[in-house]
């Protein structure tokens, strides 16, 4: 029996993570947060004090990464046995992730790690190239976006709730430069798959987005 895959791609702050998690739970499918793989690599690189210009060093660190996901109440990510969950969400981690994500060989090394998430009864995968590169044959594809201002505002609230003190202007400019890097890179740039449903969440509630995504999947698949 083929394993169904639902991909949700889009820029940071569009609500992909929240929507994907809830949709996966609703469907009873596995969930791949592909950004967390690039973020884990960013953390591994900083632990090893790697030189971001040294591709060979980055590749060997990427190859040696042993990632384990434990689902308690929250998702816990372990890198080589160490809990790195707290560092995963920081802006620095996201920025370094997006720098190394532009290196084609890095994407190649991380490709299989992502494909391995496809297991019965199904998978919801979120990222930038889930529907275009990693799971091009996915049964259901969504491209989820929102205005840059709205995304910055959401990200700001998220960080403040976590007790991380940030400046809205700085967040806006970081979001813009990360988007630009993700869209302009030559390998697997952020782009809407031809067969993806486009959703602009700027003026929508999370529940409305979830309902629209779920409406793609026929009942009782
Ligand atoms: O989605 P998240 O903000 O966690 O992703 C962090 C960075 O990882 C992105 O800015 C992007 O550069 C990279 N990424 C990617 N491909 C994916 C997921 C994330 O290049 N599928």
Automatic annotation (TrEMBL):
| Protein's name according to its UniProt entry | Cytidylate kinase
- Quote the catalytic activity from the record: dCMP + ATP = dCDP + ADP; CMP + ATP = CDP + ADP
**Short name of any one Pfam family annotated for the protein:** Cytidylate_kin
Decide whether keyword Iron is in the record. Answer: no
Start and end residues of each Cytidylate kinase domain: 7-218
The alphabetized list of GO BP terms reads: pyrimidine nucleotide metabolic process
Q: Which GO terms describe its cellular component?
A: cytoplasm
Provide the family line. Belongs to the cytidylate kinase family. Type 1 subfamily.
* Domain of life, source organism: Bacteria
| Sequence positions that bind ATP | 10-18
Keywords, ordered alphabetically: ATP-binding, Cytoplasm, Kinase, Nucleotide-binding, Transferase
Provide any one GO MF term from the record: CMP kinase activity
């Amino acid at each position: 029996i083929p394993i169904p895959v639902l991909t949700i791609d889009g820029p940071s702050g569009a609500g992909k993570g929240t929507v994907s998690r809830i949709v996966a739970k609703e469907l009873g499918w596995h969930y791949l947060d592909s950004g967390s793989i690039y973020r884990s690599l960013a953390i591994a690189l900083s632990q090893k004090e790697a030189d971001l210009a040294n591709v060979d060093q980055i590749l060997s660190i990427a190859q040696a990464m042993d990632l384990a996901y434990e689902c308690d109440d929250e998702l816990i990510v372990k890198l080589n046995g160490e809990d790195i969950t707290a560092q995963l969400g920081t802006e620095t981690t996201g920025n370094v992730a997006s720098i190394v994500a532009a290196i084609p060989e890095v994407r190649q090394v991380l490709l299989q790690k992502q494909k391995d998430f496809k297991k019965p009864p199904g998978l919801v995968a979120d990222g930038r190239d889930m529907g275009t590169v990693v799971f091009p044959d996915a049964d259901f594809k969504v491209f989820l976006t929102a205005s840059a201002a709205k995304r910055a505002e959401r990200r700001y609230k998220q960080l403040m709730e976590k007790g991380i003190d940030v400046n809205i202007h700085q967040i806006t400019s970081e979001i813009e430069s990360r988007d630009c890097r993700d869209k302009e890179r030559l390998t697997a740039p952020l782009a809407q798959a031809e067969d993806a449903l486009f959703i602009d969440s700027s003026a929508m509630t999370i529940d409305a987005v979830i309902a629209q995504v779920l409406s793609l999947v026929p009942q009782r698949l």
